[in-house]
Amino acid sequence: MSPSADVDRPVALVTGGGGDIGRAIALRLAESCSAVAIVDIDETAAARTAGLVENKSCKAMALAADVSSAMETAGFVDAVEARLGPIGVFANNAGIEGVVAPLHVYPDETFDRLLQVNVKGVFLGLKHVLARMIPRGRGAIVNTASTSAIRGRANLAGYVASKHAVLGLTRTAALEVVGTQIRVNAVLPGPTESRMIRELDRQSNATSDGLRRAGSAPLGRPEDVAEAVAFLASDAAAHVNGAAWVVDGGMTVG
């Protein structure tokens, strides 16, 4: 028999939980959830995050999976619910950055892979978790988009296109759960200290060409994003649905 649900301390699922932002989200959710399941394509990274969650006296589970695979997504959702109980909080966070290149020479295979992971991966996560949440009538989902979901960025065609799609999926799912106690929102980080931003910096051979500019807000911390996710997943955000929650220190204001 599956473990029973705990409304006050739900089970959380975090994809991309082996990365900097995903790890921060998992650790923050460990403070309010009964258990946190961490999914990442990197098994070692997922296990490392799970160990840190357990250090906070929270039950953890690490799984290696490719979120762009329908079979693997269905498998890890089933495994989490069988071992930990009904998923009450889903941080749909896994994503990749692609390459920095002008659109007219942007590699087709890179563009395709970005759509597979960043768009289809988010879609599959929503599909399989909502299929569990809807019959129960409650739950909170937070998709990780980006400020690239609400603006253009030179030389990042694949990433920008994928994050615009994440915001569209968020709004569609939010409309489909209106009238229930399920909410679907998106968090939109600006440039955040992480492996991803370091890689984009390296490719740009500058200070994030197309991502940061002179006089803009400083880099955010993964913990800043995690706090926003924790709020959107909490009962304090009970009337927040379909929101695009920007976490960028004001960079997109101007």
How would you sum up this structure, described in words?
42% of the residues lie in helices and 17% in strands. The chain contains 7 helices and 7 strands. Strands 3-2-1-4-5-6-7 form a 7-stranded parallel β-sheet, with helices on both faces. It is globular, with a radius of gyration of 17 Å. The N and C termini lie far apart (54 Å). Mean pLDDT is 91; it is low at 206-210.
Share of β-strand residues: 15-25%
Biggest β-sheet: strands ordered side by side in the sheet: 3-2-1-4-5-6-7
Strand tally is 7
Number of helices: 7
CATH structural fold name: Rossmann fold
Determine the structural class based on helices, strands and strand pairing: alpha/beta
The first-to-last residue Cα distance is: 54 Å
The average pLDDT value, as a whole number, equals: 91
The domain count comes to 1
Order of helices and strands: EHEHEHEHEHEHHE
> What is the class in the CATH system?
Alpha Beta
Under the CATH scheme, the architecture is 3-Layer(aba) Sandwich
Q: What is the assigned CATH homologous superfamily?
A: NAD(P)-binding Rossmann-like Domain
Please name the defining characteristics of this protein:
254 residues; 7 strands; globular; 7-stranded parallel beta sheet; alpha/beta
Provide a brief overview of the structure:
This protein has seven helices and seven strands. The chain is α/β, with parallel strands linked by helices.
